[in-house]
Amino acid sequence: MQQLFNFFIKNKTFVLFLLLFSCALSLTIQSHEYHRSKFIHSSNQITGSIYGTFYGITQYFNLKKENNLLLEENSQLKKLVFNQEKFVKPDTVLQNSFELFPSLVYKNSFALPNNYLTLNKGRNDRIKEDDGVITSKGIVGIIDKTSSNYSRVISILNTKSRVNVKLKKTSHFGVLSWDGKSPEITQLKDVQGMVKIVVGDTVITSGYSSTFPPNIPVGSIQSFRLNDTEDLYIIDVKLFNDMTNLEHVYIIKNTDINELRALNISDE
Q: Comparing 243 with 46, which gets the higher pLDDT?
């Protein structure tokens, strides 16, 4: 306290100047409308700038929380869309029930003949083998192993991967596989050679399995050719997903899987 008094005594002239200057400034602002409006405008600008900066910093630290909320909302919306679709096979029409679980990709390989992903969801999250994995752009793969908190996914960039797909325009179906070459291109096989194929047409999931609902995007036709016997097409499909840059994915679970297997309908 004594030091505070000593400071004021030592700087009494400067303190008196600041006091008188403040009084004069206050009187000027109060007595002149122009000065008062300018002062209020400047104060609002400074205050707004401070609040804006503080809000930006707060939002930055809340990005993870906001992203998780958006993923949850997207999961619910996709679930509503998928559950409007019907699972169809000859002489069988069943209404599927799908659930989606947002997940993060912890590891992703794409330069090997047989590539896998590791996700941060496992048995504790009700994730099981044969659950599908997608993004907002298209399919990623199928889960083949789970632990308590993690899952391994057979990527569609895996020479062992097989997914039932179809041509969007004609509904002719075949099997999507990978030749182990480009991470951007997979191959659609077993499409009859009489079918009209057009470069640029879209390839989607067929729904002829319990893993993926129908009409999930896969990619677009880049080129095509007949096989050695010239009765079936080999179609190069450019993937909609960038399989070399995956971070957020959705695990898709068919809650009717046991019933479908009991009927021997599931074959994915």
A: 243
